[in-house]
Amino acid sequence: MTDEKPDRNLLDEDKRIDTLQQRIDKASHKETERTKVRATEADGNYKLGNRVLADLIGGIGGGALIGWVIDRLAGTEPWALLVFLFLGIVVAFRNVFKIASGGSGTKEP
């Protein structure tokens, strides 16, 4: 074991580490505040996009399914499918237009 003293003063080094840690904490707090606002805005847009997609798929798929079932039961091969597919498309686009124009699609008392 040697009696040599270290080149750096450990107390000074600890102060630098403490101030660095404080700066890191402050920067991470600012970053979470900055990204928190964007996350809530993105969540709302994501939900709206999912609703539009569900209306499109549900309207078109539902119309096609109902038309196909009626065709199978009544024996009117492509006609009920085509009619209900067209009605499903009309309903789906009407719902998307209602969402885009700001209507929620539900009536409030």
The outline comes out as rod-shaped
What composes the largest sheet?
A: none
CA-CA gap between termini: 86 Å
- The helix/strand series, from N terminus to C terminus, equals HH
Q: Runs with pLDDT <50, length 5+?
A: none
Helix content: over 70%
Strands, total number: 0
What features would you describe in this structure?
This protein is mainly alpha-helical. 80% of the residues lie in helices and 0% in strands. The chain has two helices and no strands. It has helices at residues 10-74, 79-100. Helix 1 packs antiparallel against helix 2. It is rod-shaped and about 100 Å long. The chain starts with 9 loop residues before the first helix and ends in a 9-residue tail after the last helix. The model has no long low-confidence stretch (mean pLDDT 83).
How would you concisely characterize the structure shown here?
The protein has 109 residues and is mainly α.
Question: What are the SSEs and their pairings?
Answer:
Elements: H1 10-74, H2 79-100
Helix pairs in contact: 1-2
Give short descriptive properties of this protein.
single chain, 109 residues, mainly alpha, rod-shaped
